[in-house]
Each structure stands twice: as C-alpha cells, then as structure tokens.
Amino acid sequence: MTTTYDFEDTPSNYDDVQRQGGQDAVYDPNFVPDSVKSFVVHMYRHIREKNVYEIHQMCETSFQTLSERLFKDTPWPSVEAIAPYVDNDHVFCLLYREMWFRHLYARLSPTLKQRIDSYDNYCSLFQVVLHGVVNMQLPNQWLWDMVDEFVYQFQSFCQYRAKMKNKTEQEIALLKQNDKAWNVYGVLNFLQALVEKSTIIQILEQEKEGLEQFTATDGYDYSGGSNVLKVLGYFSMVGLLRVHCLLGDYHTGLKWLQPIDITQQGVYISVIGCHIATIYHYGFANLMLRRYVDAVSEFNKILLYIYKTKQYHQKSPQYEQLLKKNEQMYALLAVCLSLCPQTKLVDESVNSQLREKYGEKMMRMQRCDDEEFGIYDELFSYACPKFITPSAPSFEEPLVNYNQDAYRLQLKMFLYEVKQQQLLSGVRTFLKVYSSISLAKLANYMEVDEPTLRTILLTYKHKTHSVGSDGKVISNADIDFYINNDMIYVVESKPAKRYGDFFLRQIAKLEGVMNDMDRIKLE
Amino acid sequence: MGKEMESPKEQSSYTVEQLVAVNPFNPEILPDLENYVNEQVTSQTYSLDANLCLLRLYQFEPERMNTHVVARILIKALMAMPAPDFSLCLFLIPERVQMEEQFKSLIVLSHYLETGRFQQFWDEAAKNRFEQAIQAYATHLLSLSYQKVPRSVLSEAVNMDGASLDKFIEHQVTNSGWIVEKEDGSIVLPQNEFNHPELKKNTGENVPLEHIARIFPILG
C-alpha cells in the first residue's frame, strides 16, 4: 500500500484542444457521429418530458458506453456542433458541457483554458438554477455528480495552481488575467447560495414536523415542479463539508452538515457516492476533532454497508472510486482504533477485514515507541483528503511549488496529537492488569517519577474525555480510573447490552416479513 | 453570484455573529471580525465561529493577516480548554506563521495544558491573563480524575498556595461542593460519573423517543 500523496495531475500544456489525448488521436470537435446525434436528441427529449428514469439510464450507461467506444482518449464533440440537434437550447447546452468537461477531467488532462472554461460553465449553470427558472427533473445521481465534480475541479485547480515552478509564460499570464476562475470565494458563495436559495434547511426542519415532503420522495417533485434547486441545495451542504475539510476547518464543515441527520435515512443515501463522501468527511473531521468514538461508529456503519452492497455497483462508473474510499476508510478506522481502542464498536465482518488489512500495523501503532509515527504518517497520508491552499499564488520569482504545504500542516498537527498521546497506551497496558495500584508502584513500573505519572494520568483523562459544544463531557475511554490521594482504582467499562435497539430492529423486520407475505398471491 | 454586496450603512446594523452566520465568505467583513476579536478580549466573551471565520479569511488572503490578532485568537482559544479550540485554530494557520516566536511559546503553553503539566504552564505563562480560565480547566481535569486530591497537587495545578489557596478552596467549598479532609488537608471533590464509576448511567439502555416513534405505525 503506497504512501503517495500526489495529486495525479500531469503538467498540462497551454495548448489548443486539437492536441488532446493520444498522439494518434486526431480530434475534430465539429464531427458528430450518428450515435452522438441520437444520444443528444434522445437526452433532450427525455429532459423535456421529465423522464427521470431514462435520463438516468442515458447518463449512467449510454454516456459511458459511447465514451468507451468512441471517446476513449478524445473529448466529445463540441457543444457548438451538437447544438443544432437540440434547438440550440441554452440550458441543455450548459448540461451537455457539464458532462463534456467531466468526461475530459476523467479521461484526459485539462489545459488551463479548459479549467477556466469549465468554471464559467458551472457559473452559468448555477446562475440559471439560482434564478429559479429551471423546470426540469433530473436524476439525483446527476445532481450529485455536478456538486461533487464542482468541488473536485476546484480542488484540482488549487493543486494545479500551486505548482508554479514549471509554468509557462502563457499559463502565468492566463492565470493573472483570470483570477476569478475557481476563486475560493466564488466556489464557497455558489455552494452557500444553492443552500440558501433552495431553503433546504427550512425544508428539512419542516419535514421533521410533517409539514413538508422531501426525503419520502427522495427529493423528487411529484406535483409538477422541479427537484433541481432543492436537491442541489441539499448536496451543496455535503459539498461545503468537503471544501471545509480541504481547508482544514473541520468544526465549520461539520456545522454545514448538521441539518442532515446521518443517523437516519435521507436523500444523501439515494446516491452511493454521496453517502460515502458524507461519511468519509464526517469521520475524518471527527478524527481531527479527537471525537474518536463518533468517527469509529460511522466508519463501521458505512464499511458494513459497502461490504453488503458493493456487488450491486460493480457495473457503475463510480465503482473504482467506491473501492478507493472503502480502503481509505479502513485506514482511518485503523488509526482511530489505535488511538481509542474500542473494538466493541466495530462489527465482526468489518473487524475481520480490518485485521486482515491492518492487523499488524495496528499492533505497532499501539506500542509506545517511536516507530509508530511512521505508520501513523503512512496511513494518514494515504487516507486523508487532498488539502488545498486556497489563496492565489505569488507570481514573484523564484516560482515554487507549494501544493504540499496544506497537507504537510495537517499531517504535522495530527502527528503532534499522536505524540501527546504516545504514553497513553503504556498506561492502558498497566491499567488492564491491575484493579488498583499505588501511584508509587506504577511510577516505578513505567520508569517515571510520581509527579510525571500524575501528569500522564491527567493527560489520559483529558484525551479520553471530549467536551461537546453543549459543554457535556463524554468519555471515550475503554479503561478508566479514579485516584484517591495516592491510589489508583481501575474501572473497566462493561459493554452495554442494547436490548432496546435489538427489539426495535426485530419488530421492524417482522413487520417487513408480514408485509411481504401479504403481497404473495397464492396461485 | 451569491455574494451579497451591502452598503456599509446596512452592514453595521448586523451583529458580527449574524454576519458570520449569513455571509461568512465575504472578504469585506474582515475588519469587523478583527474588531470583534479585540472586543472579545476586553469584554471577556468568546466566539469560536467568528474567530474561525477570520482565520479562514486570512487563509484566503494571506497578505491581510494580522499576526497580533491571530495571537489574541489563540490565547482566547487556549482559555476555552478543555475544548479543542486551540488545535482547531492551528489547523488554519500556515506553518511558517506558527514558527514565529509569539506563536511558538503559545504552542508550548498549549502542550503543557494538553498533557496536564500545570507546574510548567504556570512557570511560563503570563499569569494574570490566564488565571481564571486555566484554573477552571485545572479543576475540571482534577474532578474527572480524583475522588480525593492531595493539597499539594491542587496547589500546583491552580498555581496558588498559602492564604490565597485557602481562599480559593473556601470559595469552592461554598459554591462547588468541595470538602476538606481535616486530617491531611486533602480535598474531596464532588462526585460525578467520571471519578465515581458507580454513578455512571447505563446509557446503553436508553432508547431515544424518536426511535420508538419510528415503530408507532407498526404498533398502531
């Protein structure tokens, strides 16, 4: 398993589109093969007829098949070339371009000009949606892809822009001219605007009181309206969580996610990519906030879910990404459990996978020697988001690459925290063996003096008890203690038998079985 | 574009908290946020959200960063312990800024507090600034850990002894339920679920009402 923290962005040339892709691929943007003609005509019709199912099929299957067959290493025909077949419909053209750029980023390396043009396209598309004139129903998958891709292209641009060293003069000139493109204020304000204009937060609030229907219809509007603004607003909350994690602001990121209750069903589950992105960032943010129990619980749930359902996504274009995030979350889970050994929070099937992938590394991380830092570093670097430096580059000589700065800072802070917790595993080992022990004796075993031991014990208490925003203290500790003057008394927390939950689950399950039986028609 | 451009007159009628909630991605609120930090220091109030918002804006436009303001934000965050606010702020401050002297010493102070090294903290800190806040953190941590704490340990943690320590203990006896053992002067701290495990509620058994509400349709 590699430790690469390298954004796979090959240096792109400031070049025109004709040279895209493979050396032999000659790309004519104006040539529209019949299959593409047919594709756009049908897509246009399905969108006008609000046939969400067909649109979804075309996005997920037809587009991928055609890309694979005809556009393996060239872009799709230009929007100008296909526009005549779709009445030059402005909105359709924006949507087509969105897919066009997404395909480009996935298969090829975008030039700076293309990056800028893609941003302009998103601006136009979001403006149209924000003005409330859109009357379409689009599949949630596509709407999620838009937000996801928007944030991804922003992240990609920041990485690209931070590598100033080998930029050509034209690139630098173009960057200076287009300082609005992928500007962090622009990106964040668009996401916020989508959240606000859609009033999605109020909708979710009112849904709790039964005054609104949103989750029940998966966000779709069955009364003749459009789902686009509402669902984009909803997914933008996840988008904002993601951007804030990229900036290192975990607290505010989680705040943006708050309206979505991840302990419940929600529209975020309707698209597997969204579900995973939400939990991955939620878990990572909680890891950085030292709320290990929250992180472990959520990672456990999603890893179990992926384990059970991934076979259904094998044909999907998101499958590879799904697998990658799965692996990264196992790495994060290994890290969390090494800092906060609460294996009872983890399901058996997840646990066995975890042991298989990281069993040995976890053992090494939990020893209090210096070797463990290397492993924490390795896993963190493998699994962390691709942090960005959001500010514009300095154009002064000498030009440097600073694309790793943000990552290095987060890694440094994380390892600093690990270092502070280094001695805790030593304490834990001893506490597991004794029911009570004097401070003097334990100090002797740990080869420190008593005052130092007292500070270590206080550190243990501090690091294992987090304070929520409401001021409540929550214990993360699997092994706990209290001190009476000079004696330590060990307390082992017993795993709580959750009878209540068990009964609730079985009741719901039985009801499901009875419903199924009712539906069976006896021939 | 979602960015709201308000005239200065309209803007002043919003409180800073409102600005942060409604218009956080707006470079024009930066001076307001800086003033708010100074206000927090003088009026002894604190707002994590506003301070994070300012640190983010500094991240977006590093040329506008005012290191004095950043230092004040960090001091405020330090006083919010045991909350992890200090780390939250550090995540947003570039490495080269953290290397400056004033920040290095604050980071050292934070390290002492994170690892319960109160004696070293009090040796290093400008005492007046931190007294109340850190004494509160110290007593919080002691209450989690000790049923009965020796006087010397308490003295070191809150940086007091002699008459002022007596006064401090007296105050806690009256207001926080502390008890002084007559024989050796050690302090019995109030019982809570962290230093008295038998008090721990079996949270495993609590089933929230919302969960039960989900099966009402089945039961009904």
UniProtKB/TrEMBL annotation, chain A:
Q: Which Pfam families match?
A: Paf67
Query: Source species, please?
Result: Brassica carinata
Q: For the PCI domain, which residue ranges apply?
A: 298-497
Record bears the keyword Protein biosynthesis: yes
Chief location of this protein within or outside the cell: cytoplasm
Quaternary structure and interacting proteins, as annotated: Component of the eukaryotic translation initiation factor 3 (eIF-3) complex.
Q: Which residues form the signal peptide?
A: none
What is the protein's name according to its record?
A: Eukaryotic translation initiation factor 3 subunit L
Family in the record: Belongs to the eIF-3 subunit L family.
- Can you supply one Gene Ontology CC term for this chain's record? eukaryotic translation initiation factor 3 complex
What are the GO MF terms of this UniProt record?
translation initiation factor activity
**Keywords noted in UniProt:** Cytoplasm, Initiation factor, Protein biosynthesis
Task: Kindly list the biological process annotations in GO that this record carries.
Answer: formation of cytoplasmic translation initiation complex
Location comes to: Cytoplasm
Instruction: Tell me the function of this protein.
Output: Component of the eukaryotic translation initiation factor 3 (eIF-3) complex, which is involved in protein synthesis of a specialized repertoire of mRNAs and, together with other initiation factors, stimulates binding of mRNA and methionyl-tRNAi to the 40S ribosome. The eIF-3 complex specifically targets and initiates translation of a subset of mRNAs involved in cell proliferation.
UniProtKB/TrEMBL annotation, chain B:
What protein is this chain from? Answer: Eukaryotic translation initiation factor 3 subunit K
- Spell out the family assignment given in the record's similarity comment: Belongs to the eIF-3 subunit K family.
**What subcellular locations does the record give?**
Cytoplasm
Q: Is Membrane included in the keywords of this UniProt record? A: no
Q: What InterPro entries does its record include?
A: ARM-type_fold, CSN8_PSD8_EIF3K, eIF3k, Transl_init_fac_sub12_N_euk, WH-like_DNA-bd_sf, WH_DNA-bd_sf
Q: What does this protein do?
A: Component of the eukaryotic translation initiation factor 3 (eIF-3) complex, which is involved in protein synthesis of a specialized repertoire of mRNAs and, together with other initiation factors, stimulates binding of mRNA and methionyl-tRNAi to the 40S ribosome. The eIF-3 complex specifically targets and initiates translation of a subset of mRNAs involved in cell proliferation.
Q: What residues does the CSN8/PSMD8/EIF3K domain cover? A: 66-188
**What is said about its interaction partners and assembly?**
Component of the eukaryotic translation initiation factor 3 (eIF-3) complex.
Keyword Protein biosynthesis, does the record have it? yes
Q: Which keywords appear in this protein's UniProt record, sorted alphabetically?
A: Cytoplasm, Initiation factor, Protein biosynthesis
